[in-house]
Amino acid sequence: MTTATVSAPVPGHYRPSRLTVIRYVVGYAAILGTIPYLALKFAWLSGSTIGFRDTSLASDNSIVVLNGVTAGMDLIAVLIALAFTHAWGQRLPAWLVIVPMWVATGLLVPIAIMLPLAGMGELVASDASSTDPGVLEPWVQPMVYGGFAWQGVMLVIAFLLYARVRWAAVFTARTEAARPGATHAVQKALATGTALAAALIALGYLGVAVGAFTQGRESMPVTGHLVYAMHGVLVIAGAGGLLAMVRRWRGPFWLPLALAWTGAGGMFAWGAWTLTVVLADTALSGGAQTPVLDNMLNFGKLVLGVVIGVTSLMLLAERPATNPAAHPRRSRFDQA
């Protein structure tokens, strides 16, 4: 007669949950996506000219500084991916997570969306009008932007898994459910003004996208038109999301929040990057050839991105679903 042996749990043994395993996989997948870009940047910072057609550009001071800045930004992406993956990230101050992820979303998500669209646009248009071989080897751009797209997708998934634990109530809240806070009148004024300004800026971007403003863009490829269209959509999304939250339109709260988050992040991040490149007169800028309208649009979307971001923070701080301190009787975040 045999007796079945039932294995008892080993004291102190920890078996991670399925969600924890997914967070590990997604977080480290995001980190893997940074390796090719960081390797290329560190090679350039070390004096290598790999990937450059015009090797003199590799030693340009402005390019060296930009390489250092962008390498640092990708290292920050590694840190926030680790924060989303491990339990200690739940104990970090909220701003230390939100600010870099907001910028990362604004920079990377548009690339992740644009990459397949640009590829299809090139195939449909068969755009071979440009004979300029460029300053970089043909393999550099696909590797860099492919890595950015991968990072964008993985970081967003990792952030959603992280936020689902730390700010769980956001995913079930209704936009119209919360009472207006003390600064609601200010929020309404800012949201309305932002929507009006955004309409003008979006009109400028979409006008360029459809070919209404051609000065300085006579030979713009099809991908250029798609980029302008994308920026117009970001402006509309950011302003529309803020307006929906402030005006308390009926529906799930996460939807306008995601629109405002992504739109404002893209407006701020790309506006700041483009203006930095132009105003610093780096080797990447168009110099005097940069259309004045572009500089005005970039400055406008940078300012609007900041306004939408600050107004959204005011609103979130006064919603019990996102800030337990705004309603002492509500339960605190799950810190698991």
Features of the shown structure:
single chain, 336 residues, LigA protein, transmembrane helix, 64% helix, 2 domains, transmembrane, mainly alpha, membrane, disordered N terminus
Structural write-up:
The chain is mainly alpha-helical and 336 residues long. It has two domains: 150 residues, no CATH class; 158 residues, no CATH class. The chain is 64% helix and 0% strand. Helix 1 packs antiparallel against helix 2, helix 1 packs antiparallel against helix 4 and helix 7 runs antiparallel to helix 8.
Q: Distance between termini?
A: 46 Å
Largest sheet descriptor: none
Approximate shape = globular
Q: How many separate domains?
A: 2
Mean pLDDT over the residues: 85
Helical segment count: 8
Amount of beta strand: under 5%
| Low-pLDDT residue spans | 1-10, 123-132, 328-336
User: What proportion of the residues is helical, as a percent range?
Assistant: 55-70%
How big is the Rg?
23 Å
**Strand-pairing-aware structural class:** mainly alpha
Number of strands: 0
| Strand/helix succession | HHHHHHHH
Keywords: Membrane, Transmembrane, Transmembrane helix
Protein name: LigA protein
Transmembrane segments: 21-44, 64-84, 96-119, 139-162, 189-213, 225-246, 253-279, 299-317
Organism: Herbihabitans rhizosphaerae
